[in-house]
Design a protein that fits this description.
Elements lengths: L1 H21 L8 H6 L12 H14 L4 H16 L2 H15 L3 H18 L1 H6 L8
């Protein structure tokens, strides 16, 4: 029994090596990437390669943002990093369900969420305009 358990652990570890080897360590990020992704610094090395690529994409756009937008990115990343895996999954599912709505309903839901956020954060709401869709 003990040997089976040890063998299973070893197999799981060995199967995870390629994923760990291709993930990027925090210290390998550029200073600009580290600045953009600072709220994730504590957990960066434990993120999967797919998650890291997603966040590196955010970091690429970060330098072009206004200071207020950069602040919002940091706040959102900080909130995300504090969520449990179950809470993150729930957020992903809600996001997916919203994106599956017809465009007019999706926009109505997004507007409701913007209004809810504006009530909770009045100072930020007055300075932030909704993003316009890329054409």
């Amino acid at each position: 029994m003990r040997l089976t358990y040890s063998a299973t652990l070893l197999a799981v570890f060995l199967l995870s090596l390629p994923a760990l080897a291709s993930a990027q360590a925090w210290i390998e990020l550029s200073p600009q990437q580290q600045q953009a992704l600072a709220p994730l610094s504590g957990e960066w090395n434990s993120l999967s390669e797919k998650q890291q690529k997603h966040f590196i994409g955010i970091a690429k756009r970060y330098q072009r943002l206004t200071p207020l937008q950069q602040q919002r990115v940091h706040e959102r990343l900080a909130r995300w990093s504090k969520l449990t895996p179950a809470q993150r999954q729930l957020v992903r599912e809600k996001y997916k369900s919203i994106n599956q709505l017809p465009p007019e309903k999706r926009e109505a839901v997004k507007q409701t969420l913007r209004e809810r956020h504006a009530r909770k954060h009045p100072a930020a709401a007055s300075a932030v305009q909704p993003a316009t869709p890329a054409k």
